[in-house]
UniProtKB/TrEMBL annotation:
Gene3D superfamilies: Vaccinia Virus protein VP39. Signal peptide: none annotated. The lineage of its organism: Bacteria, Pseudomonadati, Pseudomonadota, Alphaproteobacteria, Geminicoccales. Residues 56-146 form the Methyltransferase domain. Coiled coil: none annotated. This is Methyltransferase domain-containing protein. GO terms for molecular function: methyltransferase activity. Keywords: Methyltransferase, Transferase. Pfam families: Methyltransf_25. The keyword Mitochondrion does not apply. It comes from Arboricoccus pini. CDD domains: AdoMet_MTases.
Length: 270
């Protein structure tokens, strides 16, 4: 799906290029298990409240989430919009129903799924327009009362604002390591320059480079209060939210500066 919005199109171009890079595909294809305590807490909650029915796993990447999500439901479908990542997922999980599809245009009937998952801040890989499209589509394909579990970058967090790192003492002392650091830093600076026109910052959201993959991704950061409001506008109510650091509940907390991302459990209202 190609957006007619120039900014959305450019975000797509940058992020798809990075997701399709052979090094990223190799990395994502080798990761297994839960990413952090918050992700595990999110799905433990979903299981505790009786998540059931067919499950849609959006953004499967290299297939990390496939075995964990299939433990929730045998009626499982996984999708990703990056062909190279999807091929790796299919290699890692032969015979599983994995399809190339964009979350902004889901090819499923209304009310098909009881649970929809979108992990690893995948929803942040599009702009504001794309995010609204995803929330509308997820709401449409969920059955009444169904759950949407996803993670999103935290606008109030501070750690990911440090896009460039200083060389370590080992890198300073070893010319080959120092040269590699210089090369990686130059790549990051080039990527930051290419995405500079897309950067914006508001009180509750921001669109800016992500430090991972040499600043080769543009991510949408959202505050907890803003995300709750967006979900409510699209017909969801937030039942739970967990931080990525300790897996502790985040609803009602004031200080979230040490939290990189938040894991949400939202229910489709009847």
């Amino acid at each position: 799906m190609r957006s007619t919005d120039p900014a959305e199109y450019e975000i797509d171009r940058i992020n798809r290029r990075t997701y399709g890079d052979s090094r990223v595909v190799k990395e994502y294809g080798s990761v297994t298990g839960w990413l952090d305590p918050g992700e595990r807490a999110c799905f433990d909650y979903a299981r505790a409240v009786g998540a059931h029915g067919p499950l849609l796993d959006i953004g499967v990447g290299g297939g990390r989430t496939v075995p964990m999500m299939r433990a929730f439901s045998s009626a499982y479908v996984g999708i990703d919009y990056t062909p190279a990542l999807l091929r790796r997922a299919q290699e890692n999980h032969p015979g599983v129903d994995l399809r190339e599809m964009d979350a902004r245009r889901l090819d499923f009937a209304d009310g098909t799924f009881g649970l929809v998952s979108f992990s690893y801040n995948g929803i942040d890989s599009v702009g504001d327009t794309g995010r609204s499209q995803i929330l509308r589509e997820v709401h449409r394909v969920l059955e009444p009362g169904g759950l949407f579990c996803f993670s999103s970058l935290n606008h109030e967090g501070r750690s990911d604002r440090r896009l460039l790192r200083l060389p370590s003492s080992a890198e300073v002392l070893q010319p080959n390591l120092l040269l590699r650091w210089v090369r990686e830093t130059l790549v990051s600076l080039r990527n930051m320059q290419q995405s500079r026109s897309l950067v914006r910052e508001t009180e509750k959201t921001s669109l800016r480079p992500i430090a991972a993959h040499f600043c080769g991704l543009i991510g949408r950061y959202t505050s907890l209060s803003e995300q709750i409001g967006e979900l409510e506008q699209h017909g969801f109510v937030v039942e739970a939210c967990f931080d990525n650091v300790t897996g502790s509940p985040a609803l009602g907390r004031v200080e979230l500066e040490d939290v990189d991302c938040l894991h949400y459990v939202a229910r489709k209202t009847a």
